[in-house]
Please model this.
Amino acid sequence: MTLPTRTIGPFTVSAIGLGCMNLSHAYGVPPTAEDGARLLNQALDLGYTLLDTAALYGGGENERLIGRAVMHRRREFTLSSKCVLDMIDGKRSLDGSPAAIARTLDGALERLGTDHIDLYYMHRLDRRVPIEESIGALVRAKDAGKIGAIGLSEMSAATIRRAHAVHPIAAVQSEYSPAVRNPEVAVLDACAELGIALVAFSPVARGLLAGAIHDDTYAAGDIRRPMPRFVEPLLSENLKLVAAFDALAAQAGLTPAQLALGWVLAQRPFIIPIPGTTDAPHLAENLAAASRPLAADLVDAIDQLFPPGALKGPRYTAAMQAQIDTELLPDEEIAAPAA
Model:
């Protein structure tokens, strides 16, 4: 079967890519290195041609995993990673200075076992550093042959335009799903105008739209534990919407994850969702959504169920939100700072 493709800058990739973060951390206990390597190879066998990682994921272990597992198949996929967020001496660091970007990139190349990353993102905006200076560092890295294209993650339309004025931006990565609609405020239109791909992370809403969350008994270290909408008393209210979403999926003969991915793909032709999974059957399930476009009435039914802002509770904690530049929805709830 020939899989649908979409375009990111100069790259043609599978219409659904693979987010690799949870092979190293974030959602419960990650798989062993051996199981993670097996899953990455299974993804390539199935036809995924976009792998997404970052220096932050697992403190560099995610990049190392990809380097060990699939770099012998380098010609089969487009490789993307990220800088600015990094782990320095065991602590999370946000540093968009040119020196930090160069340091993180050189470390990533070593961990990945390569001399070139196809698509390299600024993971977050460092408000202490003008975006023009950060992009300048990435332009120099491109000129040196270390990266092929430049991306931004969780940034506003205004920031995207400033960055694009320095050098064309190939991709903007933002959280986007039927339940999280922030890119619709301004980022999607900016991407359409400037010819930028929108890479949608968490397209199944961190498992909420994939049948994966039934209560808030998460494993230690799970990043959903402090997120207000994923814990009680708000989770029960949000699960009522999820139950209706699951019923829509069943009526359509789809899994909830396929319904969510189909909705994302239906929004604009330049959007590429990158769901993550640690489960081999889910790899095939997710990728199949690319070949099952949703009927317009089904897309409308999802929009009626999940209008912007339908989920109760803030998207992030106050500390996490402080690093987000993407526009807020009208009347979006913001978590109070920790006491």
Remarks:
- The mean pLDDT is 97.
- The longest strand covers residues 147-153.
